[in-house]
Structures are given as C-alpha cells and as structure tokens.
Amino acid sequence: MSAALALRPLGQSLGLADVEAASQALADPAWLKERRLAAWAAWPRLAADPSASGTRFLEGLRQAFSFGVAASSPVPEAQALSLDSAWGPLSGLLRYGQGLEPQALLSPALKAQGVRVLTLRQALAEQPELVRRHLFSCTKPDETSLAALHAALLGPGALVHVPRGVKVAAPLRLEGLAGQAFFPHTLVVLEEAAELTVVDSVASQGSEAGLTSAVSELVLGAASRLHYIHHQGLNTKSAFSLRQRTALASSAYLYTLSLVSGGAVSSSHIESSLQQEGGSVDLLGLVLAKGDQQVEIRTLQDHAARNGASDALVKSILRGKARFYFDGVVKIAKAGQGSNAFQSNPNLLLSSDCRAESIPTLEIEADDVACKHAASLGSLDEEQKFYLLSRGISEQDAETAIVEGFAAEVAQRLPAGPLQDSFIEMLAGLARG
Amino acid sequence: MADAELREALKSEVATIVGDEYKYGFHDEDVAYAFKSEKGLDAHKVRAISKMKKEPAWMTEVRLKAFETFLKLPMPTFLDPASLKEVDFDDIYYYMRAGGEQQKDWDKVPEGIKRTFDRLGIPEAEQKFLSGVTAQYDSEVVYHSIKETLEKQGVQFTDMDSGLREHEEVVRRYFGTVIPMGDNKFAALNTAVWSGGSFVYVPKGVKVDIPLQAYFRINSKNMGQFERTLIIADEGSSVHYIEGCTAPTYTEHSLHSAVVELIAMPGATIRYTTIQNWSKNVFNLVTKRALAQAHARVEWIDGNLGSKLTVKYPAIYLMGEGASGEVLSVAFAGKGQHQDAGARIIAAASNTSATVTSKSISKQGGRTSYRGLVRVLPGVQNVKVHTVCDALLMDEDSRSDTYPTMQAEEKSISVGHEATVSKIGTEQLFYLTARGISEDEARLMIVNGFIEPFTKELPLEYAVELNRLMQLEMEGGIG
C-alpha cells in the first residue's frame, strides 16, 4: 500500500467507529456489544490514570499510544498452512490477524475427537453459550486501561474447547498476525481430564510500529492438563501487553511458558489461580531482550485452596540497553494449607548498559506450607566458563553454551518429544542473540 | 573534662532528666501556652523545643524547615493504610519529656511488664530505668570508669543534645547528611522535634574495644520518643554501639520515630546492635542508615520483639571501593503485632559486598514482613550482595510476607536473594519429642536454633537474656 497514508496517534485515531467495526467483525451478540461499549466508556478514565496502566513502562506505553496509525494496514497475502511446522507435527493450526481472513487446518483426528478450534466469530455463532460462560470469566474488562481498550476493540480471537476425557497428543498452534492495533483473545476451555498442548504466538505483519493488547483466558476443568506456550515475537517497534489468567479446578495441571523476544515495550501478566484442592502449576517465562527493548513480566501464584503446588521460573537474558522488570507474587490464603510454592527469577546481564529489576514477593497466611523463592542478578558464571575453557573450548563457544543452557532450562518441564526438541533448538537460536 | 566539670555536667543532665521547670523557662508565653496545650504540633511548638534546649539558630531553622517538610510529605504508601491509621499526629505529646519524667509512677507500669522484669532477673533499679520511671543513676561508677578510658582515646560519647552544644561544628557538618529531612515523613518529623539519642565520634585509628551501651550512659535521657543518633567513626577506627536492651520497655508514648545516622570513614568499622522491645501499644517507625566509605564496614545487628507496628529497614550505602556491610536481623511478631522489617543495600562504588540475613517468627496472628532493597548503581563493577530470609510460622493465624526488590544495571555483579517460609518441621519435632523432650521445650529449642545466627553475634549477657525472653514469648507469658 502507499506510504502516503495519513498517520494519526493511536489514542486519537481509535474511535467509536472502530469499536463498531470490531463489533461487526465478530457479529457481536447483544451482551458482547454492551460490554464493548461499557469498556469503551471506561477507557478514557483508565487511560488518564497512571496507576491503572498495569505497567512499569508507562513512558513506553505513552509512546505506543502516540504511534502513527495508518487508516488501513497493508494486507499480507495468505500463505498455505501446513501441519508440519518448526514446532514439530501439529494437530491443528489456526491463523488469524488484523485485516486477514482467518485460515484453519485441523487434523482429522482432532475433529474426530470432538475438539473445537474456532475463531471467535465462529464460536459466537456456533457455541454462543460456551463463549458467554467463559469469555471474561478469568479477567475483567476494566482491570487496566489496556484491558479496557482490549475489551472495547476485542477481536479477532480463538476458542479452543476440549471435551471431557479427550487427550490431544500433538500441539495445536494459534498464530496471531498483528497489524497496527491488534486485540486478540485466546480462550481455552478444557473439560474434566482433558489434555492439550497449545502454542500461541503473536508476530507483526510488517515492520511498522503497532500496539497489541492480548488476553488469554485458560479454564481448566478437574484433573485436566494444559501446556500453554505463548510467544511474543513482534517487531521491535511495537508495544505489547498480555493478560493471561488461568483458573484451575481440582487436581488440574498447567504448564505455561511465556517467551518474549520482540516488542519495543512488552508487559505480560501471567496469573494462575488454584481455586480447588490439589491443582498444580509450572509457570515459566523467558525474556530475550537487547537494544532498547523494555520488558516486564508480572506473575501471580494464587493459592486459594488446599494442597496446591506452584513453581515459577522466570529467566531473562539481557543485552545492549535492554531493561527487564520482574514482579512476582506468591499468595497463599488461609484456606491454602498444605500448599507448596516456589518462585525463582535468575537474570543474566550480558552488557553493562542493560538493567534488571526483580521483586519476588511472598504473602503467606497459612502456616502448613513450604514456600521458597530466590532471585539473582548477575553475569555469566565464571566457574562454569572456566570449566569449559579448561576443556579446550573457545571463550566464545563457552559463553554461547552457557547462555543456551540457561535458556533451555525453561523447556525442561515440557513432555519429551518433537515439541521439546524443536523448542530447545529455537530457544538456543534466540538466546545466541 | 575534669572531674568537677564532669560532675557538674552530670548534675545538669540529671536535672534535665528529672525535669526542672524553672530552668527551662516554662514561663515564656509561647512555651507556657504550648505546654498547656500539650498534644499536637505546630511551628510554635517546634520553635519552643529548640528554645528550651538553647539551640543555635541554625538548628532552629533546620527544625522549622523539617516541620514544613513533614506537613508536605505523604504517609508512606507501601504499608497497608489501615496499619498506620491509628497514628494520630495531633494526639501526641511532642516534648513533654523535658518536664514529664518525674510524674511517672512505678505503680503505673503494667503488671505483665513487671513480671517479665522479675523473670528476667533484672534488679529493680534497672527495671525502673527501663520502664522510664527513673534514669539509671546506679551505674555512675561503671559509667565513670568507661568514660575515662574513652576520654583518653579521644572518643566522644554523649547524648545528642550535649553533642550539639559541645561539638556544634561536627554536628552541623554531618547532621542530616545521611538521612535528609525530606527522606520520609517520619524522618522529617524526627528532624523537627528530635530529642535525646547519642552522639559518638571516634577519632582516627582508635579502636574502641568495649561496646558503647546507650543505656549505661548516666546522661542518657532514657529512650526518647524522637531519638536522634549520629555516630561518626573516623578513618581506620572501630566502634560497637549497643542500643536498648532485651527487656520490655514500658512507655506511655504511642509513637516512636528515631533517626540514626552512621558514617564510617575510610577503613572504619561500625557495628550497631539494637534489640527493640517496646511495649505492645507502640508504633515504632524508625529510619536507620549508614554510609560506608572506602574499605569501611558497617554492621547492623537488629532485633525486633516489641511494639505494635515496627517499620524499620536499616540501610547501608556502600560509597567507597572495598566497602562492605552486613545486616543481621530477627523479628518476632506475636498477637496483634506487625514487624515490617528489612534491609536496604545501595552499592554506589565498585568492589563492594554485603550480606543480609533476616529471620522472622510469627505467632498467634502476628505478622512479619521483610521489605528489602538491593540496588547497584550504573557504572559500578564487581559487587556481591546476598540476601537470605527465613520465616517461621508458628500457627495458622499468623502471616509472613517477603517483598525484596533488586535493581541492577551492570553485568559484573552478583545479586542474590533467597527466602523460605515454613512452619516448624514435624520431623524435627518428632525427633526431639522421641527423646523425651516435651513438645513446648522442643519448639523453643527449634526456635532458638532458628535465630542462632543472630544470637551468636550478641554480647553474652544479651544473648542469654534474649534466649530467656524468647522462652517467655513462646509461652505467651508477656503482657
């Protein structure tokens, strides 16, 4: 498209007309439209309140709002889908994006098992009750200014529903392609004892700056198991915000990995709530930042019921002038007796201009618990390096090996198989910078 | 100072302690008014405090400026707002101490505290001192011999008011340089109305081998409500200062807000040991901070047992190459108590290191928090800071929070933090009870073992007293 398009700051260029357009794009039922309008009405108030930003990088966010937004974005050409991917063989692939016709390719096995992988528009048409029950069941539209903007301009998105007892072996891929203002919503619902692996990613369609405000709601039925990998790989001019929240019923298990490698400013809230007895969560994060990237990860391990277990490991590898801010909370309520919680935040600072800040927090109100946390900020371990050097490995190779090993740790809790292999390879590539 | 002078000085200090209305000129119009109104604070009263103390004009100005700052600053927001709601600045006597002491009555000291004194085996004279009824005259002889030894070495150890009179230039140069009045609301309040506290100056190269104990000082005006302490250890010197003691300190004041400034010049060492055991109606909001210059070392040994709410984060600014620091703290929160303690380490120079060890115990609904900050400034190389926090929860009503913050902008550093929260291990208990030890005794042994890294750093008599006190706390036997 021509470069002569008039550019306007995002805050000004988004208007009620955009809310209407987003509403039409999803063919909103009345209740959703109403929610959009309420969120749109709440947005100016929240946007004016710095404490409602939900991010440390307020300045970065302001810049995001002053992005020039083209009246319409160039539309990339649709590419053929394939279930053979860099992530190993897939059970299905759903690709959607701003201004794109969604594309889906599902394996016959997936269909036979009764698994639903629908765009939000399809889901609203075919499964209105399911969407209504779960959409915004874990997050609220007015939590932050970005959440409000998301709720007002919501779409496109995906609903994944796995029926009771169904176990899907190969990963399902959700691929979001961001334009200049992108508000994707992922809703994963696992019924009792269902099992699924999802790789959810967001990437930029082009090289222009843009804003993506994403929400992921993961609803886990009793004894269900979900592996959820989210990869933010936007271009380095864009701003990103993710609110991911999981509600776990009894004995459910969640593995979540948030991989952040893109974006000029990126803020992820990864929260899990153990609402019934015996749930367990592995909450992982890996940040690979360089240049002027500013990344924030906030985690919450909320133990509201007995005998839950949660283990968070959020790592960062920082280069250039990158900034990383980690704020992690472990909360064990009075009802959370018998809980086991662990939280760790190691940060690898590879340049003298990068900056890391870590605030791991424990709030413990029950006594019969085992709760630990640890955090570190530092450079390469000299002893590890010495060990490798003494074996004749060059300094550069030794450093690379240590950094790759540091990154690969987050993949260790994935089930062994092609996904883990290809993922470790991908991490190594990203970690090398 | 000659003996006669010293005695004269002591006499005047005694007069200060027991109060001498005439001497302090309460007939002055302003002051008389202020005295009658008693509670609350305004610029008049701040001026009056300064006037009563016959302070130089610059200090009066500092106080007034600090008072303005106090009014402007907001209450700290990081705490649960409900916890500070009871602090009513208008319901506080800001300077009744000068004349108020003599009115205190031993009979008014709560029974629980008297009982604790007895059980700790503290002589009655000392009990009266600790509870604020009298000052500790009985230790005059001991004090005197210590004072002579120190004087030979050129060590200055007086209360802050005398420090200002006798060493005005030193005080003027360093007062408020470590903790400026604008630091926080309570530091501003202290700067406006401070009274008492210690002034210590240790000359170059002097090693003070006996600990300086604040409550051994004849002229210590008891534990002030707004103590102001300034300790300066000149190049290559070393000093160990001990404040307070382990026995519960009965007080009528509801708000205590001290400011403690330590300056360790190049190569100097300062250890500051304090065990706070205010009675359980007191809000104890303290700002403590130390500067460690090149190759200097600062150690805060900090115990928090008493008070309703304690907010205290001893800080060490590593200002020169090779400086090091240590914060070792223990907090015990029983029924209705909240100990919000922590440590702050700011590395502003290369090749520096610090360790923080924090132990906390919560019991009967008590709440302990660790709020820490480790910051490595840009351009600072080769820094190692390690923090370890362990919390023990004694029952299901208690609560423990950990809020460390770590900020680093350099690669050649190592900043680490680890924390655990747990209850007493059932296996440990089983092991001990299987050997015929009663469960209560076993619990106490485990708790004493838990805080051992702290107790072993205390002088023997404190360690013994602390162990016995822990025993009382564990039994719930303290008023």
Topology:
The complex is a heterodimer of chains A (433) and B (479).
Chain A: E1 7-9, H1 10-13, H2 16-26, H3 30-48, H4 58-65, E2 68-70, E3 84-85, E4 88-89, E5 92-97, E6 103-106, H5 108-112, E7 116-119, H6 120-126, H7 128-134, H8 145-153, E8 157-162, E9 172-178, E10 181-182, E11 185-190, E12 195-204, E13 211-220, E14 225-233, E15 239-248, E16 253-260, E17 265-274, E18 280-289, E19 294-303, E20 309-318, E21 323-332, E22 340-349, E23 355-364, E24 370-378, H9 382-389, H10 395-408, H11 418-431
Parallel strand pairs in A: 5-9, 8-11, 9-12, 10-13, 11-13, 12-14, 13-15, 14-16, 15-17, 16-18, 17-19, 18-20, 19-21, 20-22, 21-23, 22-24
Antiparallel strand pairs in A: 1-2, 3-4, 5-6, 7-8
Helix pairs in contact in A: 3-8, 6-7, 9-10, 10-11
Chain B: H1 3-18, H2 29-37, H3 43-52, H4 57-72, H5 97-100, H6 111-120, H7 124-130, H8 140-153, E1 156-159, H9 160-166, H10 168-174, H11 185-193, E2 198-202, E3 212-213, E4 228-233, E5 238-244, E6 255-256, E7 259-264, E8 269-276, E9 283-292, E10 297-304, E11 309-312, E12 315-318, E13 324-333, E14 338-347, E15 352-362, E16 367-376, E17 383-393, E18 399-408, E19 413-423, H12 426-433, H13 439-450, H14 452-455, H15 460-475
Parallel strand pairs in B: 2-4, 3-5, 4-7, 5-8, 6-9, 7-9, 8-10, 9-11, 9-12, 10-13, 11-14, 12-14, 13-15, 14-16, 15-17, 16-18, 17-19
Antiparallel strand pairs in B: 1-2
